[in-house]
From TrEMBL:
Originating organism: Tropicibacter naphthalenivorans
Protein name: Aminopeptidase N
Cofactor(s) annotated in UniProt: Zn(2+)
Keywords in alphabetical order: Aminopeptidase, Hydrolase, Metal-binding, Metalloprotease, Protease, Zinc
Gene name per UniProt: pepN
Annotated InterPro entries: Aminopeptidase_N-like_N, Aminopeptidase_N-like_N_sf, PepN_Ig-like_sf, Peptidase_M1, Peptidase_M1_dom, Peptidase_M1_pepN, Peptidase_M1_pepN_C, Peptidase_M1_pepN_C_sf
Keyword tRNA processing recorded: no
EC number from the UniProt entry: 3.4.11.2
GO molecular function, one term: alanyl aminopeptidase activity
CDD domains in alphabetical order: M1_APN
Peptidase M1 alanyl aminopeptidase Ig-like fold domain ranges (all copies): 432-523
């Protein structure tokens, strides 16, 4: 396959002045007629006229009304064209009903829908399918479907047709079409300047009752973007559609967002607190893209983080404002360490702005998204919140309507603040997680912190330069008072010292508060000091971080030396758990120890080979120990977290349920599932029902409840996804793989629905001890199913192959088993470009 390089960027030779599309819908033979005015682009080098096009049947093409016979390849067409402006007309036939890749125009449960980002539009018609070609689209849809939607504002409609016009120039990846038997949950929003916008969430009949929460989240997001970023909505209508078969979470098509139904449909009976929170965040994320992504888009796909990093950053600010800021920050850091750090430290490591790719869909990664958002957080911390707002205003003023680059983005900050961001830009070009060591010195009232930074080599990047690290630090006096409040030290050198003068006693430093830089901090500090920070740190993040470090050290000691649990740490943690002035959600995060893959990662970072069985056994021992030690604390926590009000998915109630779930999980170790059964029987919402079911499965007495749950919910595909995943995750590693294997034979299992596939196989891949079973059964099952999925849905296959990315951490036997499975995938006949790139990178 061909590799595309950032350095080879050239502008397209023509501008698309307007685009008229007519769709005549038919499941196996949809006709698409395109009429496009092209005019030479004065800023582009001379080139042949080339339009992307894949899996299209060309019916006819004409230039200025005269039929032409273009030269066709499997990538697109070329054709001689006049030297001035011309009208391009083209009719193609496509087969949406056979499109299981879910890219381009496809069908989901009888409904037509599209997914064009990144390069799906070329499966709809011949077009310059690149984000820097922006045009005004007018769309006519012909078909019997009662509802027919596209981007922009509605135009004429009548018997068997509907027209749409989007006045905002956009790249083809933001095109969308939906048609089918749909019903809407309506709403409306009046913008700050008084414009009334019609809102709709469109769903399959039967799902109407699951839209109210999403609608509220949409309105709240619209308001927030006006208040915080000064951004108003810019069309008369905003439509959201829920689709069951979808490769990712959702898509920000202009005025017509398409959502995976799991990321928009919600009700207390069928959705967990975590589902609600995620839905709120994704609705916000897609809505925020209207400015950061749509009004200002990307020049090319290498600039993907321009829209994704910024939009993730904006949605995390939104969630912090709506819910608890420390809880959100801790959750984001857990996620960053769980998904981005392994990526950054393994064979798939790439810069936030990659420099080459074979298949761009493989670069919608935790690095581009989540590290991309961290980089923006660092920028904001460096320049301060006011300058950040000023720079963002300038960004929107200067680049509205542009397809922009990271250079444009940084220039706005340089112009708004007078800062030179040359060194900071390394965050976009240099891959890998920096490791920072800290040493300290105390003399005559002066405290010195010395930081050294080093970024290990990553594929294609052997030598790393120092990064700019905005390191938030505070100092505590020995009695727990904060003597130096948080300040941001700007580290730019490989080694750099900072002094604090005039202190009465040697302070305890609290370093990288709020996780201000996304690094691995290597600092030798005693258990006493960590316990001190756990008890006293005024920064809630670092208080949690101190506990996490103690938990990690305890786990590692148990694994490596056979020591017992560290009771001093457990006593410190108990004090936190008993402190009912602390948010229950925060206490729940304290109680949740590092997961198995985090421990494997830390073991690897510290030069040990992780043993998945030993990690699992340690977890069992430690959990049992905690349960027994806290036998009188647990009933108190269960009582304290009981919610008597009507169900609300807000931060307050869900925090209580989260702490309650943690307490139930320990309680189940002592009572064999009695409390879980009682909770299951009484549950009137999915959060309580599901946490109870999980504990019943874990207790070994879950089969009857699993059956009852299935019988109760078999009509609800999103709940049944949970049922598939939960039983795999709840069973011991020795049974989980076999259960997953059996579930792939269940009548409700299907390879064509990504949610079901991920619920089942993702559960195995995410279950450390099961996936890494010594006999290789986990690896083999994954490889079998990924090989089968590749012909059906390359994008989801490739994405799930990254489960193997940490393979070099493990022992020689496991490495050999994984390598054999990856080689088996590589050897598959007609392997997709997506999967071949991913597995190829992991093997090289
Ligand atoms: N922009 C889309 C992701 C498209 C993924 C294409 N493989 C959703 C989002 O980030 O909002
Ligand atoms: Zn996004």
């Amino acid at each position: 396959p061909e590799t595309v390089y950032l350095r080879d960027y050239t502008a397209f030779g023509w501008q698309a002045q307007d685009v008229h599309l007519t769709f005549r819908l038919a499941p196996h033979a949809t006709r698409v007629v395109a009429r496009i005015h092209f005019a030479p682009n004065p800023d582009a080098p001379a080139q042949d006229f080339f339009l992307h096009g894949e899996e299209l049947k060309l019916i006819r093409a004409a230039i200025d009304g005269t039929e032409v016979t273009p030269e066709l390849t499997d990538k697109g067409l070329t054709c001689p064209v006049p030297s001035g402006p011309f009208l391009w007309e083209c009719e193609v036939e496509i087969d949406p009903a056979s499109n299981t890749a879910l890219e381009g125009l496809y069908m989901s449960n009888g409904m037509y829908c599209t997914q064009c980002e990144a390069e799906g539009f070329r499966k709809i018609t011949y077009y310059p399918d690149r984000p820097d070609v922006m045009s005004v689209f007018t769309v006519r849809i012909e078909g019997d479907e009662p509802v027919k939607l596209s981007n922009g504002n509605p135009g004429k409609s009548g018997d068997g047709f509907a027209e749409w016009h989007d006045p905002w120039p956009k790249p083809a990846y933001l095109f969308a079409l939906v048609a089918g038997d749909l019903v809407n949950h309506p709403g409306s929003f009046t913008t700050a300047s008084g414009k009334k916008v019609e809102l709709n969430i469109w769903v399959r009949p039967g799902d109407e009752g699951k839209c109210a929460f999403g609608m509220e989240a949409l309105k709240t997001s619209m308001k927030w973007d006006e208040e915080v970023y000064g951004r108003e909505y810019d069309l008369d209508i905003f439509n959201i559609v829920a689709v069951d078969d979808f490769n990712m979470g959702a898509m920000e098509n202009k005025g017509l967002n398409v959502f995976n139904s799991s990321c928009v449909l919600a009700s207390p009976e069928t959705s967990t607190d975590a589902n609600f929170e995620r839905i709120e965040a994704i609705i916000a994320h897609e809505y925020f893209h209207n400015w950061t992504g749509n009004r200002i888009t990307c020049r090319d796909w290498f600039q993907l983080c321009l829209k994704e990093g910024l939009t993730v950053y904006r949605d995390s600010q939104f969630t912090s404002d709506m819910r608890s800021s420390p809880v959100k920050r801790i959750s984001d850091v857990i996620d960053l360490r769980g998904r981005q750090f392994p990526e950054d430290q393994g064979p798939l490591s790439h810069p936030v702005r990659p420099e080459s790719f074979q298949e761009i869909n493989n670069f919608y990664t935790a690095t581009v998204y989540e590290k991309g958002a961290e980089v923006i957080g660092m920028l904001r911390r460096l320049v301060g919140p006011e300058a950040y707002s000023k720079a963002l205003d300038l960004y929107f003023d200067r680049h509205d309507g542009d397809a922009a680059t990271i250079e444009d983005w940084l220039k706005v900050f340089e112009d708004a603040t007078g800062r030179d961001l040359t060194q900071f830009k390394r965050w976009y070009s240099q891959a890998g997680t920096p490791r920072v060591t800290v040493s300290e010195d105390w003399q005559d009232g002066t405290f010195t912190l010395t930081f050294s930074q080093m970024t290990p080599p990553t594929p294609g990047q052997d030598d790393k330069q120092p990064q700019v690290l905005p390191m938030a630090v505070g100092l505590l006096s020995p009695n727990g008072d904060e003597v130096v409040p948080t300040q941001v030290l700007e580290i730019t050198e490989a080694e750099q010292s900072f002094t604090f003068e005039g202190l009465g006693a040697r302070p305890v430093p609290s370093i990288n508060r709020e996780f201000s830089t996304p690094i691995v901090l290597e600092r030798d500090s005693s258990a006493e000091e960590k316990a001190f920070l756990l008890a006293h740190d005024t920064d809630p993040f670092n208080r949690w971080e101190a506990n996490r470090a103690l938990a990690r050290d305890c786990a590692l000691d148990m694994i490596l030396t056979g020591a017992g649990p560290n009771v001093a740490w457990l006593d410190g943690l108990e004090a936190v758990l008993r402190d009912d002035t602390l948010d229950p959600a925060y206490r729940a995060l304290m109680l949740a120890g590092p997961g198995a893959s985090e421990l494997a990662q830390v073991l690897h970072e510290r030069g040990h080979t992780p043993d998945p069985e030993a990690i699992y056994d340690m977890g069992e021992t430690l959990t049992q120990f905690m349960a027994e030690r806290w036998v009188d604390l647990l009933p108190k926590l269960l009582a304290e977290t009981r919610v008597t009000d009507a169900y609300r998915p807000d931060a307050e109630q869900s925090g209580k349920r989260a702490l309650g779930a943690a307490a139930l999980s320990l309680t189940t170790r002592l009572d064999g599932g009695a409390a879980a059964q009682a909770q299951y029987d009484a549950a009137d919402n999915m959060t309580l029902q599901l946490t109870a079911l999980m504990q019943l499965v874990k207790s070994g007495n879950g089969e009857a409840a699993l059956q009852a749950f299935y019988d109760q919910w078999q009509h609800d595909r999103l709940v049944i996804d949970k049922w598939f995943g939960l039983q795999i995750m709840g069973l011991p590693p020795g049974q989980a793989v076999e259960r997953a294997q059996a579930l792939t034979q269940h009548p409700d299992f299907t390879m064509t629905n990504p949610n079901r596939f991920r619920a089942t196989l993702g559960a195995v891949g995410g279950y450390h001890a099961a996936f890494h079973r010594k006999d290789g059964a986990g690896y083999a099952l994954l490889a079998d199913k990924l090989i089968a999925l590749d012909d059906i849905n390359p994008q989801t296959t490739a994405r799930m192959c990254s489960l193997f990315q940490t393979w070099k951490r493990y022992d020689a036997d496991r490495q050999a088993l994984i390598r054999a499975q990856m080689e088996r995938i590589m050897a598959k006949d007609k392997l997709s470009r997506d999967t071949s790139e991913m597995v190829g990178r992991m093997l090289s």
